[in-house]
Structures are given as structure tokens and as C-alpha cells.
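Good morning,

Attaching, inline, the C-alpha cells for the sequence recovery test we're adding to the shared suite. The designed sequence is right after.
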């Protein structure tokens, strides 16, 4: 239990896990102020950060630390979520926070939820939850430098937004990367329709 339990505690810390030197008691990295401040502008500031603890400057007036467990709290207003990206030993932390974000976005008390995630289009949570976002931004070109690490992550970044006020972020997200809206599933053309039409024309002749 000893070593496994210690590792599990570290995995629950806020923020992404990257290569490089860091505090051995935490794998948390904060969101760059330039990013979260620009994202906060369209809504005149975020109201809640349920994954706080890695930034030197609070992102919102209401914050929940790891000990307060934002997954168990009710959210409100415009919310910024930079969740832990590692496993908690039973399920993907990313999937847990995405499920929570989608559930909270349906509550009247919540206006919008902006989430920061690693780009992994092969993951189940991407197809089930990220593609269901009201607006989705693929950050780039370039990599995002997090606070607390000595090098950039070796992966791209996704910024899905959920909630009624998601449209407010469109322009600022466009300045940070490529924005897509909605989820239109490709439907192949049914060729039998053309054949049936041709047969009808022959009958008329």
C-alpha cells in the first residue's frame, strides 16, 4: 500500500503532469496568467475556480482547493477548470472533471465552464465529452507554457467550453487557436436514391 498510496495522492494534485523538475510533493502546474486573463475578459472575470492551488494569483474570487474537492461542490457563474490530468486510481481524472463540467453546465446557477485539457483525440473522454462542448478550441500553433515547470509540455492543448454563455468566448478563443462549434456527423450519400430517380425518368420516356 505504501508506495502506491503515495503515488495516488500525488496524482490528485491540480494541473497537468509534465516532464521536468518539480516539487516532489505535487504534479500541479498553474495556468499562464496571459491565457486565463484573456479568457476571463469576455465574461468580466471568472466567478469560480474549482481546481485552484497551483496559481500564485487566484483566477476567481471563489476557489476550491484539493482538500475542498471541487467535484463535490456546487458550481456557479462563469467557471474556469484546469483539472488534474492523471488517474486517481479508479478512473480518469479528466473524465471525472468533464462529466462534472457537463452536469454543472446544465444548472441554472452556471453560465459557462471553460476547461483546459491535453489534446488526445484517441481518448474516449474526448469523443464522449469534449466533442459535446458548445465551443471547442484547439490551441496553437505552438505549445502552452505552464507555470511551475521548466519546460513546455510535449503535447497540444484543448479548450472546450460548456454552457449558455459559451458564445461569448468565440473571438478570444479564435485568437488562441482554431475554433469549432457544434458536432455534425458525416452521413454518406445514399446512392440508391439516384438509381431510383433514373428508373423513374426511363418510365416517363
Amino acid at each position: 500500500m505504501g508506495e502506491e498510496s503515495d503515488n495516488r495522492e500525488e496524482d490528485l494534485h491540480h494541473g497537468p503532469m509534465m516532464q521536468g523538475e518539480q516539487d516532489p510533493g505535487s504534479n500541479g502546474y498553474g495556468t499562464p496568467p496571459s491565457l486565463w486573463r484573456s479568457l476571463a475578459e469576455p465574461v468580466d472575470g471568472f466567478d469560480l475556480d474549482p481546481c485552484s492551488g497551483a496559481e500564485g494569483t487566484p483566477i476567481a474570487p471563489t476557489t476550491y482547493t484539493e482538500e475542498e474537492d471541487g467535484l463535490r461542490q456546487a458550481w456557479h457563474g462563469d467557471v474556469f477548470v484546469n483539472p488534474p490530468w492523471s488517474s486517481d486510481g479508479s478512473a480518469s481524472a479528466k473524465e471525472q472533471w468533464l462529466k462534472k463540467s457537463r452536469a454543472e453546465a446544465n444548472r441554472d446557477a452556471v453560465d459557462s465552464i471553460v476547461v483546459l485539457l491535453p489534446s488526445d483525440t484517441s481518448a474516449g473522454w474526448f469523443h464522449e465529452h469534449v466533442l459535446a462542448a458548445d465551443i471547442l478550441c484547439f490551441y496553437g500553433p505552438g505549445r502552452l507554457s505552464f507555470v511551475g515547470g521548466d519546460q513546455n509540455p510535449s503535447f497540444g492543448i484543448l479548450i472546450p467550453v460548456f454552457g449558455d454563455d459559451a458564445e461569448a468566448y468565440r473571438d478570444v478563443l479564435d485568437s488562441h487557436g482554431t475554433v469549432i462549434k457544434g458536432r455534425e456527423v458525416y452521413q454518406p450519400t445514399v446512392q440508391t436514391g439516384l438509381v431510383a430517380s433514373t428508373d423513374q425518368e426511363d418510365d416517363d420516356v
